[in-house]
Specification:
A two-stranded parallel sheet has the order 1-2. Strands 3-4 form a two-stranded antiparallel ribbon. The longest helix is centred in the first third of the chain and has 33 residues, at 9-41. It is 69% helix and 4% strand. Helix 3 packs antiparallel against helix 5. The protein contains seven helices and four strands; from the N terminus they run αβααβββαααα. It comes from Caldalkalibacillus horti.
Length: 244
Amino acid sequence: MPTFTQRPLTKHVFGYLFNWSLWYLGTMLISHLIFLWLAGRYDQSIGSFLPFTYYTTTIFMFVAGIFIPYVFLPFKKYGYTRKQIFTSSIKASLLTAVTAIAIIVVITLLQHLIVPELVNPTMADAVIEDSSKSVHIDLSGMNSPLYEALNYSESWVTTILVFFASILVYHFIGLLLGMGYYRYGWVIGFIFIAIALGSFFLFQWIWETDLFSTILLPTVLSVLISLIAAFAAWLLIRNVRIKL
């Protein structure tokens, strides 16, 4: 049986991230099924699993990015270099993003096949209430400002591209934030919080502005933000003192 160091590091890191994502997706699926049951009971409908999980998936990947330095840099004790740990984390993060989106899309398609009358492409009108309004659950706040680009009734390709670009931005900003705290501590870490917030505002502006006529440029700019964040994280990681 191969030892820890004989197995590709990317598989180890992906194993961690995939297990985290399964717990997250499982929790979200149970929550969504409960809301679907309530919607069916009161003859209403809500957004399908994809729009229901858009915000929370970006937040999950953001938090996962923050934890990467703390969980995986100590792998240096097994003989891995900082570069190996960093590149493996990047590869595993991309695999996790693709896998999570694939699972979400499959569940969404199954919902449209099984209970098409209960699911919509967005969360815009996701309100569950009975005739007396003694039950009132408003989920419309989960609707993303990117709802037009995420409305897969227009284009599945566009939706998946926007979803993937969003995950990359949030995840790599989380990685940069986590690396900033790991290297400099909580005082200077506040600077990285400011950088993260500024990056999020820039990302939202890119997708909400009317300056771009197609999604191509916003997508490219989103990927560029991700690459800059990842490169900045590498500059912090490459000679950081690792806490074993």
